[in-house]
Amino acid sequence: MVLPMHAYRTHTCGQLRASDVGKTVRLSGWVNRRRDHGGLIFIDLRDHYGLTQCVIEPDGKGFALVDTARSEWVLTLTGKVVARTAETVNKDLSTGEVELRIEDVSIQGKAEELPLPVFGDMDYPEETRLKYRFLDLRRERLHQNIMLRANIVTSLRRRMNEQGFTEFQTPILTASSPEGARDFLVPSRRYPGEFYALPQAPQQFKQLIMVAGFDRYFQIAPCFRDEDGRADRSPGEFYQLDLEMSFVTQDDVFAAVEPVLAGVFEEFAKGKTVTKPPFVRIPYAEAMLKYGTDKPDLRNPIEIVDVSDVFGRAEVEFKAFKNKTVRAIPAPGAASQPRSFFDKLNEWARGEGAPGLGYIQFEQEGASVVGKGPIAKFIPEAALADIAKLAGVKAGDALFFAADKPDRAATLAGLARTRIGRELNLIPQDIYKFCWIVDFPMYEWSEDEKKIDFSHNPFSMPQYDREKFMALDKGDKDTILGLKAYQYDIVCNGYELSSGAIRNHDPDVMLKAFEIAGYPHEETEARFGGMLNAFRHGAPPHGGTAPGIDRIVMLLAGEENLREVTMFPMTQSAQDLLMNAPSPANAKQLKELHLKVVYPEKG
């Protein structure tokens, strides 16, 4: 008895091999490309799994129907598998040794004229790509990126389970929390004038899971923040590998996370080198000095140095750098670069809001190394030698300078370090370099509000004696601004993948921490009463972190924009062009929610 053939396919479009020659098979998929060669019609049929070349001759059954097919029509093709001739074998295609001789054809779906082609990899405007995302996702590179994302998430889950973590889900409708960005608010129909918030992160819930006695939690967690998008941050929503652990120190968190991240990067790195655990740990203050950023790209060998003291000497006559923080950025081998190289960097610095970048070129003259360039003449030989020694430069190198207030000098120097590293091709592309940034400041001074505020996560445990911390008051400003927290970030190739902390699980210390930041006890109790109440009923020491899924996939896919690794992203202005969101609510919905829309005044 011969069983009837499946209605749509016996094989996928990526499955047929030379061993299938002689079989009658059925394939279904999209017309990737149609070619007419002297009467012969070739159809490259594509599905999720791959592509198969199919062919029909003018006298073949169904020729007239195949002749009408156009790009992205959905066809079911039945026929015999035949071997390609030696000269027509396509070694770049998994099915390239065979083709399907079409004997029967069915049209499953016709496609109108395409607003963007699926075949090829031409760049198209964001608006077109996102409005027709279902077409964009059919393109090979993007399709592979989304499958890479799925495989990475699967790998992360497996590795977390192997580390003894259990996956739990936390609520999506919750209360507003000061996580550092605007909340998305959801109006309550049953409680007029009151709102839920979509979670910026499952921060409080994952801590409550620890208080509830579960030891190692993780979740591929959706997070929602009403903030502007950029290349490395999706507007609206993103996903993170959220995790928390009980009875742990900072070292324990690092020991659990490092093999997961290193392992998943090694699995999908396509031969690139990956940092082996343990990852290097860099204190925040050192990172800001050496790299000008708290997310340094360690592939770049350039290290910034502070030369403020040298320029502060009486004998150094360069007045533009007096009474300023001066950071020096080495440019290895750049002394021989043409004048246009230095002019271009100065122009770039002015575009960043700085007056420019002073520079010195170091050259060999006889037995001595001398400085050349616009500011070298203002610097005595001894001071020049000290600057060269501090920066570790030699003849043939150049040195750029960023001079300003401490924070602005650090920022400009960090940007210049990256720019110079790229201009001089110093950054290898075949490696993933991880590090931890540790010892973040607990507090910072808000110049706008003229008050002390949290620097990062408000739920971090301070690195300070408990009794001394509880005794702090407003007069201890310098001590407070010098406090460090058990706060840490994971950084890879210049991207922050994760922020985390050992949590403040002591309710009295937590109230004090918020009091220092200007929150009265009553307000803290009102906003975080659930967590404080839990802590008063026996809370274990706990900590965790939350690596961003989107950024991990972006790095492993070799992309520079999260849009390329997200299935249905929004525009940079947080609009969903495919589903037309956000959109106005109708009168009935507004009435049910007890809401009235007040539009901003024009002009």
Can you tell me about this structure?
This protein is an alpha+beta fold and 603 residues long. It contains 17 helices and 24 strands. The strands form six sheets. The protein has an eight-stranded mixed beta sheet with strand order 6-9-10-24-23-22-19-12, sandwiched between helices. The protein has a five-stranded mixed beta barrel with strand order 1-2-3-5-4. The chain has a five-stranded antiparallel beta sheet with strand order 13-14-17-15-16. It is globular and about 95 Å long. It starts with 23 loop residues before the first strand and ends in an 11-residue tail after the last helix. The mean pLDDT is 95.
- Shape assignment: globular
- What is the count of β-strands? 24
Q: Distance between termini?
A: 79 Å
User: How large is the count of helical segments?
Assistant: 17
Q: Work out the strand percent.
A: 15-25%
Helix content: 25-40%
Largest sheet: 8 strands, mixed
pLDDT < 50 stretches: none
Mean pLDDT: 95
Structural class designation: alpha+beta
Strand order of the largest sheet: 6-9-10-24-23-22-19-12
The Rg value, from CA coordinates, equals 30 Å
